[in-house]
Amino acid sequence: MRTLVLNAGYEPLNVVTSRRAAVLVMRGKASVLAEDGLPIVAPSVLVPRPAVILLHQYVRVVRRGPGAPSRRGVLRRDRRQCGYCGGSASTVDHVIPKSRGGDSSWSNLLACCGPCNVRKGDKTLDQLGWSLLTMPRVPRHHTWLPAELDAPRDVWMPFLDPSGVPG
């Protein structure tokens, strides 16, 4: 089971295991805001399984711009949707092929399904007569949030600001 960790200002900070969350609560570093069903069983105590915890002290998060693009990052940015046909993407494609001078930047990489990737090969969009469904871009500021917040658990929803959750 996973637990949502909120900073002292109630913004999502991380997602940790229920065991790690229970340790933070037992050490007095956090409070439980929501519980899950089954408790954590320890040799001498039953601990409620936390679903959401709130840290008592504010943790300053240093947010840097997005780093170098990765396959995982591009798929997450594009929500695993093919930029050519809209199908389910499992790979990444260079819009301008590397063989034609394209680079591996956020603005040239796109989530792509296998069939479109094979059909495109090292051709340009003009040669194929294709157009992009979405323009590749540098990810927005919120991509530092844990990937688990892309599909949050129902019990977390009251604690998440809809504008702050990736989507």
Can you characterise this structure?
This protein folds into two domains: 2-63 and 146-159, no CATH class; 71-128, no CATH class. It is α+β, with helices and mostly antiparallel strands. The protein has four helices and eight strands. Strand 4 (40-41) and strand 5 (46-47) form a beta hairpin. The longest helix is centred in the first third of the chain and has 9 residues, at 18-26.
Quick recap:
Helix content is 16%, strand content 21%. It has 167 residues and is α+β, with helices and mostly antiparallel strands.
**Main sheet?**
4 strands, mixed
Query: Spatial order of the strands in the main sheet?
Result: 2-1-6-3
**How much helicity do the residues have?**
10-25%
Strand content bin: 15-25%
Shape: elongated
Mean pLDDT reading: 87
Which parts are unreliable, with pLDDT below 50 for 5 consecutive residues or more? none
Number of helices: 4
Distance between the termini: 23 Å
Number of strands: 8
Q: Give the helices and strands as they follow along the chain.
A: EEHEEEEHEEHH
Q: What would you call the structural class?
A: alpha+beta
**Total domains, how many?**
2
Radius of gyration: 21 Å
GO molecular function: endonuclease activity
Protein name: HNH endonuclease
Domain HNH nuclease: 69-118
Keywords: Endonuclease, Hydrolase, Nuclease
